[in-house]
């Protein structure tokens, strides 16, 4: 028996527009809407789900996505901001460089170059 990751699920008071945003951002597709209470997005990297809750847990999210881009990091940052992400700034450590952003509902995620040192 082997354990594997099925999907990453995010709580939301309005999951359908958030799922559509992530589908756009990742080039994925909304594959299940379930009347808007549990929405599934399939991407080339796997599945994301967004489930309706009455109230999201306040404060910084404890789990976030680290995404990689195989092209121009600055161009991808601008594309994501252009489709509704909010930039929290550029970060670096040594030669590594990345951006921290939030999706339209305030969930943080990071985007780095695929080689993580560009």
Automatic annotation (TrEMBL):
Entry-linked InterPro entries: Glyas_Bleomycin-R_OHBP_Dase, Glyoxalase_6, VOC_core
CDD domains in alphabetical order: VOC (cd06587)
Residue ranges occupied by any VOC domain in the UniProt entry: 4-114
Entry-linked PROSITE patterns: VOC (PS51819)
Protein name from the UniProt record: VOC domain-containing protein
